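Practice set, problem 2.
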Amino acid sequence: MASEIGVSRQTMWNWTKKHQDFFDALKRAYDEGLAWWERKGREGSMGQIQGFNSTAYIFQMKNRFRDEWRDKIDHDVEFSGDINITLGGNVDD
């Protein structure tokens, strides 16, 4: 998005830190962009867009919206205590 309006990403980050309303506007633009792309995906999957390429669409979504469109979900698990693992052996042991 930064390149589309002619500023660096760092400038965008600096603005979001200094101006809460800019941060809010950027978040709203992100959410509206996600909604637009998802709507296009639904239209394409229903045959309403001639030449719709689902593979290209999926790559667009994964690159534009990394947090929402991931194949792998990371899970953080905290555990304290002992874990006993036995490899091999018989079921009856």
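Problem 2, part (b): a different protein.
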Amino acid sequence: MTEEKSSDSLTVKKGIFGLEPVCAGKGSKWDKWKRNEQLRKAIIGILIETKKPMTVEQVAGIVDCAWVTARQILTDLALEGKIKCFTYREGYGKLFQINEEWVAQKAAEREVK
């Protein structure tokens, strides 16, 4: 792939399917990634603040995002070990709570620095 400059000074890559913009502006993958990072931080902050188990619906309502997005972020955080996941009714729902051990570890790392 080669890079070229277009007339509107947007850098484009010449690929298999012709000219494709590097950053398409609003709605680009970068914007979605940035929004998800902000949502992750907000969700972690909420779970640290409440210190009680919460459902996906509760979290999605507080951070004002789609239920699917909240569930994906909560699942990712649980897989990373940052939050704990509990099943409150077999096959029906999950509760998510901050992992106190992870918070303590992060606090210890900040004290060392």
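Answer key, part (b): The two ends are 43 Å apart (CA to CA). The beta strands are 2-5, 11-15, 18-21, 83-89, 93-98.
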